[in-house]
Amino acid sequence: MNQSIQTQSPNNVSLLISQSRTNTLGNKTGTWRFVRPKYQEKTAPCSNACPLGIDIAMVEMFASRKDYHSALNKLLMENPFPAICGRVCFHPCESACNRQFLDQSVGIHHIERFIGHWGLSHAKNFDTYPELNGAKIGIIGAGPAGLSVAYFARRLGYRCDIFEKSEYPGGLLKSGIPSYRLPDRILMDELERLNNDDIQFKYSQSISMDQIKTLNEHYDALFLCCGDAHSIALKISGEQHSIDGLDLLHQIRSNKMPVIEGTVAIIGGGNTAIDVARSLLRMGAHPIILYRRTRKEMPAHSHEIDAALKEGVVLKECLSPIEIQKNMNQLEVKFQCMKPGDITDGGRQTYIPDGNCSVTMPFSHVVSAIGAEMDIMWRNDQWELSMSHCQMKRIADQPVFWCGDLTTSEKTVTHALASGKQAVIAWDVMRNQSQNEINHICHQCQVGKGPAISFDIYTNGERKNRNNTEIVSFERVNSAYFPKIPAIQVNKISQESCQNSFNEVISGFDETQMMNEASRCFNCGICNDCDTCRIFCPEMAIQWDKSNRHILLDYCKGCGICIEECPRDAMNLEVEP
Amino acid sequence: MKEVLEGSHAVSEAVRLVRAKVISAYPITPQTHIVEALSEYCADGRMDARFICVESEHSAMASCIGAASAGVRTFTASSSHGLALMHELLHWATGARLPIVMAEVNRALGPGWNIWMDQSDSLSQRDTGWIQLYCETAQEVLDTTLQAYRLAETVNLPVMVVLDAFFLSHTYEPVDIPDQQSVDKFLPSYEPRISLDQQNPNAIGQMAPPAYYMEMRHSIQMAMQSVLANFNDVEREFEHVFGRTYGPITPFACDDAEYIFLMAGTSASTCRHAIKTLRNKGHKVGVIKLKMFRPFPYLYVRKSLGNAHKVIVLDRNCSFGAGGIFAQELRAAMYASGNHPQIYSFIAGLGGRDVTVDHFFEMFDYVEKADYPENESVWIGLNHDN
Amino acid sequence: MCKINQKTISGSIMASKYPSNDYIMPGHVACPGCGAVIAMKFALQALGPKTILVIPACCWAVVAGVHPQTSLKVPVLHTAFETSGAAASGVRAALDMKGDTETTVVAWAGDGGTFDIGFQSLSGACERNENFLYVCYDNEAYMNTGVQRSSATPYGAQTTTTPKNAWKSHRKKNIIDALAAHRIPYAATVNIAFPEDMMRKFKKAKDIQGTRFIHAYASCPTGWRIPSDQTVAISRLAVQTNLFPLYEVENGTDYTINYQGDRPISEYLKVQGRFKHLTEKDHSDIQEMVLEDWQLLNDKSS
Question: Can you give the pTM of this predicted structure?
């Protein structure tokens, strides 16, 4: 086997030496390995926590690169109203964010707001609604749930008629959430996304259960999104002296400012109570929230409670009203003192009356904000389909979906939007395949451990290649690649302005702040082209081919460095088949 | 141009004339005059070369290997322990097939420290694959160095030009120094057959597993086997340009000789005097001066030994346990021929001890009287009082 | 969408472009996860194609390709074990005589061939201020011959010639100080977990005339008894614990420290098989040594 270099000298002197004449590409060192690397994107914990299952890691990636168009499209895949949610969502994503274990969570909420806001000036009208598919649906209620149904349904080709009992769209977005949290202008601009000939709004049309049966003849499916229209009554003596919190907010929003001065009691611990308190403060009153348990148990969003207290709202805990008595121009309210009782099996702290301890306080007004419930006619307990965020029952042989606050356990804007999406997808599966397929298909479209489902995956977007059940934990993030950088503080108006006006409190990030904050995102579980794998591969087995990164399996020895170094857990090591 | 030159400087002049480009050397007596002259030439511009003052002989050979691999003509010189230190790399230079030329001043190995003439150092390296050419006069030193480059670059094997410590390195003789033009005609500029290639990046000298190694070694042997023919071609050219020739061996009065001395180096001059005296006494005796030792020119030696029935080999070296090395090599060379003269091995002149005409008479007397040679080499000139 | 050139890529180690062409080809026979290959990868990226490598006996002598193969896209001269300094001097002299002043001559040797057997020829070359770049890729033992100790093996390590019951009780030779004493124009330490710093230093060294020495930390999963995917992680820890500080020495006198670490040495020791036998007392002894060396280095750099 004489393959040495042979150089002929003029005198034919033999000259075979050790010298290269070929390269090592002929050695297929891939045969050495017993494990092999694979690019496998996974679900970020923020997406897993998001009720809408937004592909947050991707959004931040695009945002940090100033590719607002792509960022917005990613948001709109799962959420029609980013500019709104970026203001009113309770951002469970930030609580789940892996970055908190390094320094502080990424400001996902304010980044969504920025992108949403960009959308309002650059891409207000949604321009890629597809052709119609021939079917038509009816939607009762133009609140967040109903609007969400319309958006996703139209994106699947359905014609939509929305019946709204008031004269305006938006529901609680318009009448319930104060403008210092959600300015009217933003709401109206955002709703232009639904400007489409095949989405018809029918205002001042209140629909009752009897009318459902008639409507059924005109629509292939109906979606009940009327929300909880009735405030829950205090059910104590003198309750007629109290003002309904939701009504009060509605009046303020309609610019019919009622005159409320002095010390005002607000009974309740939810978002409505907070909204009422902060609104009254701006109107010059002195709001005091009285809650039957402690701050920890208040169902209102924690950051909202913080904001309220900072503005000067007073909170009195462990007081439950038992009686209201009118005394001249004052209202005297008697409260039962409460104390902690047992802790339930579920770990919840109960509160029980503290013997005979009671206290009476004078107020100029009493506002009741202890919750709302649905109209009796929508009550139902026999379902043909029961999902996490929607339920379905046939009425006169036609499917009717219950959505939004009617069905969700958590009554938030985001859950309502998620509910609409889930119902539309369930309906579309029913229509195109069968009811039996719904759970299976929704499971395939699930984000993380669910229950959020992804419209992107449902419509065969690239997200379907992601490993949705694997959620990236902080241990899998290689934090060596991320120097500690504290979160950027968002701009707010001054404390004084808060107390004096209904101007929006949070001004949001400017572009530089937004990009810096978005750059802090680890991009958990998705490949953001940092190229760390290719840079370190000792076999040169990771190569580029135009814009496609791939592994040369002929040479990869399975050392695993790429997986270990990947800053964001976008790769897996699997056993060599 | 004729000048009276020290033997060492004959080397230096030759190296200057061949236009060596990289000289790398470490001082050791008695090689120092060679490299000192060269460093002066480099400093004053008589030579356009880089002189590297390395920190050991091992590094001297290593940098010659590096420079030769990068495609330039190189030179180094050493002796004794310095040569011994280079041993590993002498093998390397051969395996790498680099045309390195080295002047080797034959000096004894210690302990005890001995700076004087002895052949043990160069002969210890006889297995390394270097061509070895032994010189007798300063002129021969200069001429052989010029020829060495031509030869080395033809066969791609390194060449050792050997000269006796002090007897040749530090004595002065008239030497005809050729002009640069003639040398350029005899030895054109160096066109390496192997070198590092920037255009088609290559690796040289890598690991060669069993499947490849043996052919490379065979190639070296084949090249060695072509040396004699190539040497003769080089000598023919040399004679044409400079009018001098030497041959792989120089026989003297061998045609009808019954006794023939064999040796290498300056002893041959002394021997010729002894031969003249012995001839005047009627003895048919001659001497072969061995110039080429590697490859061993057995055909020439066999032919020149003719029908002589006693060969008297002088070794100024000893391979302990086996005796004089030239004698061993001769025995091996003669074994395969039809002719089997008696080979008498004598060891004399180690560590600079003079070898005189009387010593040659002593050897002749011994051989004349002996029926057959001893198994062991006979040591001549020992002082039993020491 | 432009892929690589984005400073805003979260967690990217190369904000600047890392080229798509490498100077090493796949199919070489280095162990899986070899740190020395990663070191060569970054070195050649920084130095470019006008480079000639001189490689003595070491792991890379085999990784560079067994006859008749080569795994590199630059010329390579293989040379005897202790000769890198001298052979590189020879190559440089030849190129100079041929009028080539652009090609960088790089001696690429392991720790054995640099700290021990090759020290003489390296010292000789430094004293003569030979114009080449000498890179010692340090895997802290004679790895190619089976993990025997060298003078680069750290205190506390187990090797095949310093087994568990007689682990290496001499401290690692400070090669940078030894060579800085020759007043060479540039000496620096680099580490494969810090590629930007490493490539910057190679680029800087390339443009300096005279003898430049780079001490490259190149972890060895095989010899250090760590999983093959820990190569870069361990290298990072070495710097973060100040065991292998990143610094530069110019003209033998100006010391600049490039990175300040703050992790305890135990983090580094406890994850390597070659240190498994050490006790807590050993760990704290080593921590003291690290602090002492770090203090000495800081004194020199102020």
Answer: 0.91
